[in-house]
Amino acid sequence: MKNESSRTISSIKNLRASTAGIFINVIFSFFSRKIFVLVLGKEYVGVSSLIGNITALISLVDFGAATAVTYRLYRALATGDDKSVCGYLHFYRRICALSSVLTCVAGAALSVILPKLVRGFDDAVTLYVVFAASILTSAAEYFFMPERVLLFADQKSYVAQLFSYAFGAVTVVADAVVLVVFKSFSAHLLVHSALSILQDIFVVRHVRRQYAKLGISSKKRYDKAFFKDLVREMVSLAPSNIAGTLSRTVDNFIVVSLFGVSQNGVYSNYNMLLSYAAIFSVTVVGAISASVGNLNASASRARSMRIFGMTSLASFFLVNISTTLLFVMSGDIMTAWLGSTMALPFSCSCALAANFFISGVRRVPVVFRDSLGLYRHEKIKSFVDLFASVALSVFFGKKFGIAGIYLGQAVAAFVVCLWYEPYVLFKYGFGTGVWRYYMRLLSYAAVSAASCLCSLSLCHAVGSFSVKFLVCIAVSAVFFFACFAGCRDLSGIFEKFSAMRAKS
To answer: What angle do CA 85, 87, 90 make, to 5 degrees?
Structure first.
């Protein structure tokens, strides 16, 4: 069984890998997207993003098995139940094989209407090559998923991250060479897909060597009770998985429908900026997320609540910085990165920051909710969120353009998700009231609003990009520590940080 010390050590390794990955991923992605836009243009960016979302929709054939299996692996690994671990993985391999076949079938079916989905792009040959490569890559990746799930559940996600960083460097160089030499979107995607699969092969080989004594590649039998229980769990997860995936992907279809594939390229660039901010802000959450599952499998509710409060506050420190940077500097960043033609008005920066803040403060309750297996309580919420997001995005999109898409998503998440997810966690997970956490959310919103407005005011008198960047970070940090100084959770964070430094 993993104790507090081993959880801390694993979290340290995950945190180090995540921190290093922030800078590596941002540098690689900025460079790769810059070359992509310069050589091919924003239309191909829009197509690539839309095809990626179509592939994500097809990934619903996973049936929610990854979440259900990961939840059970937490306890099996925490208690040293090797037989159950192997049984879960063997069952999951069979699900992955079925998912791979169904992905290819669904891709073939969707290819009939593909040109109608990608409005404004006339190169049919390239479109089908890109779509086929994307579908086949997605289908192949299912065969490598069991090993990745095991790494995550056993708090070894840093291993996969290290492989990702190494192959990321190779992929960026290969992409740049292929784009400059061949100027071909198809060649670019084929090289990218090949390197992605090669990365998965290396990860699987490492995991099988690492867990050789466990025998994870053998065909361990699982009892009928487990089979029925897991299938029941997957069925209960299916509605929320379907609604959640649609919520994350439908925005591209709305943008293409309202503004065309070219504007979807601009929208995708802003989404990429949003993802960079998310990479930075989820460092703490991502590093400890598997540890949370192990913690909730073996610790008391009081201990879990204590860790939740500290994690929430630590995560908000990074969310606040990212929100302020997006509010003040997203236009400057886009201009410096891809040129002024790719930058949108300040209204888009406001909507982008609001969207990011809400998604950022939701992340910790969702991680704890999933680690406790409480996602089954949110079936209806997922569809309500989907309907609200689509309706509001279309409504505001017609009025305010791309900024309206982000505004619609933010309003929907605020009305439907922001209050309900903590309610489920506190009621069914911690067994206590949620009002104190709602007050904490209000304080988060007040601190972020003050940080954004103060930073914007100060940056009006600053011309230097780097100085603006530092001003936003400094102002965010000052407001955070000024408002939460003396807070019990903040003191706990400092104590935890000191303990981590001592163990490292």
So the answer is: 110
Residues 6+ apart with CB under 8 A from 300: none
Return the amino acid letter for 119: R
For 370-400, how does the pLDDT look when each residue is reduced to its tens digit (9 = 90+)? Answer: 777 777 677 788 889 999 999 999 999 999 9
Distance of CA 382 to the CA centre of its chain: 17
Q: What pLDDT is recorded for position 63? A: 67
| pLDDT band, residue 476 (cuts 50/70/90) | very high
Q: Which amino acid is at 289?
A: S
Handedness of CA 353, 46, 465, 461 (dihedral sign): negative
| List of residues 6+ apart from 165 with CB closer than 8 A | 20, 21, 24, 25
Q: Residue type at 261?
A: V
3-state secondary structure 96-115: HHHHHHHHHHHHHHHHHHHH
Token pair recorded at residue 386: 């989907």
385 C-beta neighbours (distance < 10 Å), count: 23
What lies within 8 Å, CB to CB, of 235 at 6+ separation is: none
For residue 404, pLDDT beyond 80 = yes
CA 324 to chain centre: 20
Per-residue model confidence as pLDDT tens digits over 13-41: 555 555 555 666 677 777 888 888 888 88
Report the C-alpha gap between 118 and 47 in whole angstroms.
7
CA distances (Å), origin 87, targets 3, 61, 153, 298: 24, 21, 15, 21
DSSP category for residue 432: S
| Per-residue model confidence as pLDDT tens digits over 195-242 | 989 999 998 898 888 887 777 766 666 666 667 777 777 776 677 777
Query: Of 246, 216, 215, nearest to 147 (Cα)?
Result: 216
Q: What is the mean pLDDT of the chain?
A: 83
- How far apart are alpha carbons 349 and 452 in whole angstroms? 11
Q: Letter for the amino acid at 90? A: H
| Measured distance CA(172)–CA(162) in Å, rounded | 16
Instruction: Please enumerate, as own/partner, the contacts of 147-151 that have beta carbons within 8 Å and a separation of 24 or more.
Output: 147/203, 147/204, 147/207, 147/208, 147/216, 148/200, 148/203, 148/207, 149/66, 149/69, 149/70, 149/73, 149/89, 149/92, 150/73, 150/85, 150/89, 150/207, 150/211, 150/216, 151/203, 151/207
Q: Report the largest interatomic distance among the alpha carbons of the chain, rounded to a whole angstrom.
A: 69
CA Rg, the chain, in Å? Answer: 23
CB 178, CB 39: distance < 8 Å: no
- Give the CA dihedral 129, 135, 136, 138, nearest 10 degrees: 140
**Alpha carbons 22 and 19: distance in angstroms, whole number:** 5
Burial class (CB in 10 A: 0-12, 13-18, 19+), 122: exposed
pTM over 0.70: yes
Question: Residue range 132-143: average pLDDT?
Answer: 90
